């Protein structure tokens, strides 16, 4: 009897979420849990996209608002606003998103490279693994570790230790 994993079967499993009108996907293996939004404890002098930290069962977890990090138009907090707790670079962090949708399987061949933009100062495509069409939906698949620069990760670690 053999076991099949998502990676070996030619599929990636992604948790899908919304930021504004766009739908994104993130590797399900990075997701620890999904929580309703609660106002985190603010850290002085942190960049605006770092909302603060929360105490998650004794672990101090920095919270990043992806809507601010990616300069999305929306940054309202509604009953649908959630925090996805992720494991990134051997650390836990939370990301604020407008809503989570579902878990989808994306065949590896369905993941298309993201278009390259001439003016890379406006759009940092390094964190986009690709674009996938799932049924009628267009999904932007992101690499959260690539999205957060080394500087961001340093600021997050500092925030977690300062709390």
Protein architecture, described:
The chain is mainly beta and 163 residues long. It has a single domain (11-162), classed as CheA-289, Domain 4 (OB fold (Dihydrolipoamide Acetyltransferase, E2P)). It is 13% helix and 45% strand. The chain contains three helices and eleven strands; from the N terminus they run βββββαββββββαα. Strands 8-1-2-11-10-9 form a six-stranded mixed β-sheet. The termini are far apart. Residues 1-7 have low confidence and may be disordered.
Question: Layout of SSEs?
Answer:
Blueprint: E1 11-19, E2 22-27, E3 31-36, E4 50-56, E5 59-65, H1 66-69, E6 82-88, E7 91-97, E8 99-107, E9 111-112, E10 128-134, E11 137-142, H2 144-147, H3 150-162
Parallel strand pairs: 2-11, 5-7
Antiparallel strand pairs: 1-2, 1-8, 3-6, 4-5, 6-7, 9-10, 10-11
Name some characteristics of this structure:
45% strand, six-stranded mixed sheet, globular, OB fold (Dihydrolipoamide Acetyltransferase, E2P), mainly beta, 163 residues
Helix content: 10-25%
**What is the CATH homology-level superfamily?**
CheA-289, Domain 4
Q: Structural class, judged by helices and strands?
A: mainly beta
Low-pLDDT runs of 5+ residues are 1-7
Biggest sheet, spatial arrangement of strands: 8-1-2-11-10-9
Strand content: 35-45%
- String of helices and strands: EEEEEHEEEEEEHH
Counting DSSP E segments of at least 2 residues, the number of strands comes to 11
CATH fold call: OB fold (Dihydrolipoamide Acetyltransferase, E2P)
Q: Domain count, please report it.
A: 1
Mind describing the biggest β-sheet?
A: 6 strands, mixed
Name of the level-1 CATH class: Mainly Beta
């Amino acid at each position: 009897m053999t076991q099949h994993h998502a990676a070996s079967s030619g599929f990636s499993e992604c948790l899908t979420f919304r930021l504004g009108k766009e739908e994104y996907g993130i590797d399900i293996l990075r997701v620890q849990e999904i929580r309703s939004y609660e106002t985190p404890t603010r850290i002085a002098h942190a960049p605006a996209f770092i909302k603060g930290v929360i105490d998650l069962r004794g672990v101090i977890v920095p919270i990043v608002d992806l809507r601010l990090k990616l300069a999305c138009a929306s940054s309202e907090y509604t009953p649908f606003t959630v925090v996805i707790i992720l494991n990134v670079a051997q650390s836990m962090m939370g990301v604020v998103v407008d809503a989570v949708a579902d878990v989808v399987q994306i065949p590896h061949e369905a993941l298309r490279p993201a278009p390259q933009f001439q003016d890379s100062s406006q759009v940092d495509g390094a964190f986009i693994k690709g674009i996938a069409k799932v049924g009628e939906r267009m999904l932007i698949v992101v690499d959260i570790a690539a999205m957060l620069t080394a500087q961001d990760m340093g600021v997050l670690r500092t925030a977690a230790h300062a709390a």
